[in-house]
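A note from the maintainers: we've had questions about how concatenated examples are separated. There is no special marker in the raw files; a new sequence line simply starts the next protein. For clarity in this README we add a label.
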Amino acid sequence: MKTDYLIVGAGFSGSVCARVLADAGKTVHLIDKRPHIGGNAFDQRDAQGVLIHPYGPHIFHTNAKKVFEFLSRFTTWRFYEHRVLAQVGEQLLPIPINRTTINQLYGLSLTEDEVQGYLETVREPRDPLRTSEDVVLNSVGPDLCDKFFRGYTRKQWGLDLSQLSAGVAARIPTRSNDDDRYFGDSFQFMPADGYTRMFERLLDHPAITVRTGVDFTEVRPQFEGSHLIYTGPIDAYFDHCYGPLPYRSLRFDHQHLPDTAQFQPVGTVNYPNDHDYTRITEFKHLTGETHTGTSIVREYPQAEGDPYYPVPRPENEALYKRYAELAETATGVTFVGRLAQYRYYNMDQIVAAALKTAQDLLDAHAA
């Protein structure tokens, strides 16, 4: 089959690449093994008509104006600032930790100026910051670490904080003010018509052919001569020749509560120390929709299943680098995305990486 590019994976990485290349006059054949586009960001209405995210909550946020402007071609936006509470004992407390968290937890009345001084008295200085445990103890000390982070991490990753690279915990700030937003980015919005509708518009181009429910290995021989853009797990592409890269998976328990207008006060509540699940998300907070009932999802991290998160540990990074060396020598194929680059990317980082990848391919072709 004659086409300029075969793209494997119809999530953000593959779809953004497809659109940039198509806009530049290239023909693109985009496939995905799932029966839908959008990857993990795919959304749909449940049986009761509530818009939900089958693969867990996806909240868009970015400081990259270029990324926001690109996606704005394909959606209007609903302003939304995500807020998360953590259940600690009988209390629901803001996370990331802020002044309110500390004052309510310990019965204090610290001012903003006093919060940092308090944290200085409880923190355990660590240098260098090699692990996530180092990061958390260096920032907030052992008690806050145990109440908010250690148990959650064990559930989320199946590992202790001391076994994870520093970058995981470094994603979560600690604040001395009352800012209770989960993200601090300049652009915080949700696609007004949902992610799936945004993907439909993104892929609505005469030069893009989309096929879902397609296994890459079965159709690959049909596209000899087409440049391949691969967004799946890099170890799978190379038949796990160096052994499997560790990924963390998730199981989702979706539930509709027919006579409950609102289940919880914010979009997501974390459970760092109780229950087998890590968090509950209520979708109506995210979408702004109204309904007589409400739909929620509980997330249960697990070792087996579809890969969601690369596991950030030094030994895993070393194994990935062996696969990355193979990727550099492979001809006619480009790797991009969270699974292909073994990176714990946010959505906006994936879009930025895809924009750069597509432009690099166009520049190389023009050279």
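[label: protein 2]
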Amino acid sequence: MDNKKIANDVIAALEDVIDPELGIDIVNLGLIYDVDVDDQGKCKINMTLTTPGCPLSDVLNHDIDQKARSVDGINDVEINLVWYPIWSMDKMSRYAKIALGIGGM
């Protein structure tokens, strides 16, 4: 089992998780900091939110868990919500900035 490939597959699957407020996926928003998969198929996702106390965190956690588990080789998912490094618009992909009409790219 190639854990790095599985982690990349998880990241690709998470591109289907859309932030309901912004309408952009959480990967392009730069909310996913790290995905690690161990030899037992446990997937650890380190991520942040655009703002502390985001009212949609439960919805996002459910969608993230579901998408990660849809990847072959994933048996368990652990989502770690972190606040460092602090999220900023600089973490967004060029695609996300264009989609949200943010200039200065």
